[in-house]
Specification:
The protein has eleven helices and seven strands. It is α/β, with parallel strands linked by helices and 296 residues long.
């Protein structure tokens, strides 16, 4: 081990300890890397997320308007329904979402009003009053074009039923799921034949300082040690080839894994990694990926 690896190995343990301690005292609290108080930034973030998904969706399906008229499911939407609002404005038929953490409760109404104003300024076709009414209905628990489901067991079959979804989106959430196998198995039940999955997965360590210095820090440790710091939502260390295997096992085809962010230095990406991540099938140079697949 080179000196730098020893340093990052030791420093990483401090960050794992800190993340575990925070989760005990604060629970899962900050889905975005900034707070909801910066409304403009949050709106920009949500729009970028959707535009990025739609870019990959167009490339994957070779269709300009695949979204239009589709029943959409977002897994792990985080702090607000901005993504759903924007997807509905772009023509999807129904926005469904499932999460285990109630992160939306404190989203200010002003966020949605400013988001609607933004949509109005860029899309003259958008039905702003209709979208506002749909938001008001979901907030009081009525049937709406927004169907936001909170379930501690994350049982998406119980939440949405069989063969109800055409398009699955997710952003920086799969890496937090407790049991990827079960989620993909349930996703196969929930999705109609021909459904498309577009999901960005953040493969890096999530602790802020060390993420910039040593993005692959969490892969330095053996499972038995890493698991001592487990808490609900801690990164599950699933690598791209594993996503591919799991998807294919559960009836998904044409799996495409596109690198969204990579390390600059290939050799450094493997330096000091635990044996389980030392083989190049792990693609340790991939820091963030877009998973695309089609349900058979
Ligand atoms: C980093 S946030 C991303 C949120 C949102 N997609 C965004 O980009 O801002 C991760 C999301 O995964 C959800 N999540 C965390 N742990 C989870 C778990 N064990 N099962 C299901 N969802 C989980 C969180 O509640 C949150 O919505």
């Amino acid at each position: 081990m080179v000196l730098q690896d020893i340093f990052f190995h030791v420093a990483g343990i401090a960050f794992l300890t800190s993340a575990k301690t925070k989760s005990i005292f604060r629970g899962y609290s900050s889905p975005k890397p900034f707070g909801m108080s910066d409304i403009e930034k949050c709106i920009r973030y949500d729009i970028n997320v959707v535009e990025n998904w739609l870019f990959h969706l167009r490339k994957y399906t070779n269709e300009a308007d695949f979204l239009v008229g589709k029943d959409v499911l977002e897994l792990g939407p985080g702090s607000d329904l901005g993504v759903g609002l924007y997807l509905l404005a772009q023509g999807c038929s129904q926005y469904n979402a499932c999460d285990v953490n109630d992160l939306m409760a404190s989203t200010p109404d002003d966020f949605y009003e400013q988001f609607l104003a933004k949509i109005k300024s860029t899309n003259s076709q958008a039905k702003i009053d209709f979208l506002r009414t749909q938001l008001q209905e979901v907030k009081v628990g009525n049937l709406s074009k927004f169907n936001y489901v909170l379930r501690d067991d994350f049982n998406i079959v119980a939440a949405f039923g069989k063969a109800t979804i055409d398009l699955v989106f997710s952003q920086a959430a799969f890496e937090h799921f407790d049991d990827i196998n079960t989620t993909f198995s349930q996703l196969s039940t929930v999705c109609r034949s021909g459904a498309v999955l577009i999901s960005q997965v953040d493969l890096q360590t999530h602790s802020r300082w060390i993420r910039r210095q040593d993005p692959n820090n969490i892969y330095r440790y053996p499972s038995w040690f890493y698991n001592m710091f487990w808490f609900r939502g801690s990164p599950n260390r699933i690598r791209p080839y594993q996503y591919q295997e799991i998807l294919e096992r559960h009836g998904w085809t044409d799996v495409s894994i596109v690198a969204v962010e990579t390390t600059k230095d290939y050799n450094q990406a493997y330096s000091g990694m635990n044996n389980a991540f030392a083989d190049n099938k792990n693609q340790m140079e991939y820091l963030s990926i877009m998973l695309c697949a089609r349900k058979v």
